[in-house]
Design goal:
mainly beta, Tachylectin-2, Chain A, 2 domains, 32 strands, binds beta-D-fructofuranose
Length: 495
Amino acid sequence: MVSKELKKARDYEAGKMKEIGREERPAFHLTGGCGWINDPNGFSFYRGEYHLFYQYHPFSNVWGPMHWGHAKSRDLLHWDRLPVAMAPDTSCDCAGCFSGSALTLPDGRHLLMYTGVHSDIGDGDDRERFQTQCLAFGDGVNYEKYEGNPVICPDMIPWECRATDFRDPKIWQESDGTYRCVAAAMTAERNSRIVRFRSTDALSWEYDGVIAESTAQLGGMWECPDYFELDGKQVLCVSPMAMMPEGREYHAGHNTLALVGDEDPVTHEFCRESMQQIDSGIDFYAPQTMLTPDGRRVMVGWMQAWSNSKFVPPGVKYFGQLSLPRELHVRNGRLIQQPVRELMEFRTEAVILKNVGMGSEKRAFEGIEGRLLDMTVTVRDLSELKKLEIFVAADSTYHTSVSFMPKRKLLRIDRSYSGYLYDIVHTRDMDVETENGELVIRFVMDRYSLELFIGKGERTATLSLFTPLSAQGIYFRAEGKTVIDIEKYTISELS
Ligand code: FRU
């Protein structure tokens, strides 16, 4: 049944979408039909296609009562929009359908597990935001909320869990058929705990312990947990709010963390061995992963930051994009990310330059320009190089720069001149490691974003751009001498 709230969202979206032109959207990154989007949700493979949902407020460009928007794809790059999947329309989720995940049930139905937010339970501060975990079943287009909702409540946790901070279930099925999920919870002392539940039928759940806990240093609420096995290690991804800065690795505020370790096969306890920022750029939050049918662990994040998202540039007809899906690996305790290999199939118009000598003169190269591209720059010969600057989305007014300072092992991104004229974060510094005296930087650009994959993907940096599309230039400049290779492809527009 389509509720009146869902119908209203679907009708509104259908009308508004017509006002958004093709060039106003990215070519190969997912955006909402209209209005506002945040976290990716329900990333899954169902009946031969990838499905990706997102936190959605279609009615304006700012966050509001959360719906789930929906799209599907065969190649993880070109997304077909589907009707809004869920609206806040039941007693369990009347204040919002918050983030969650999806899987296919043995009977062929698509299961969505999400956080229902009530406005009618609790007192005082708790009144608006009581959070429980809920289910919906569907056929890949239409979804019915489960009449047994909620299926997980904070009082199933044997310690005092704040009823207002219990959300973002990530569900999966073990090889023995058991269902498990992890969710973000918070103690009365306001430490975040990632809690696990188990179930034999995905309907009735029991508490299965805490797998990790935040500390003051590592932030308040750990939002949007994801927990998976990869390359023989166990990985826990979380998005901590209000984290302390630490060197160039973590900045003050919201971060994205990957904790890598092992799980005890008997107690299922998670033992963390290492930790890193998932993305060192400006706009990347709340990532979620899925396992593809060919066994790849693929991650998508929200390509925005909460702190910047209050500033929606005038004239923008929708707000928020999701990142490129990224293939993950773990090597030497680090999460490695690369764009999904499907991107290679859309590379056209190769321009390959080898052994280009660089000095202080600003240089442009024929065919090296554009806003839809996949470009790898290999910086060789670091002995005399003080700084290499690469300017993209550039013209005489605008540019976004990536600067590499090898002596300081520093990479800096700067979008101060991108046309995004608000007093928000525009630069970030990050540590980079060279390998065999070289640094590889892969630039994946869509109309309104830049994603950098550095080295073999040990570090990534993502930022959204509002630079006018007329700024198509790419320039290079060095302080001190170096030699670079450039391999640039245009990414073809969808048909
Ligand atoms: C993360 C988050 C989630 C929540 C959702 C609400 O960005 O705060 O914890 O479920 O957004 O839209």
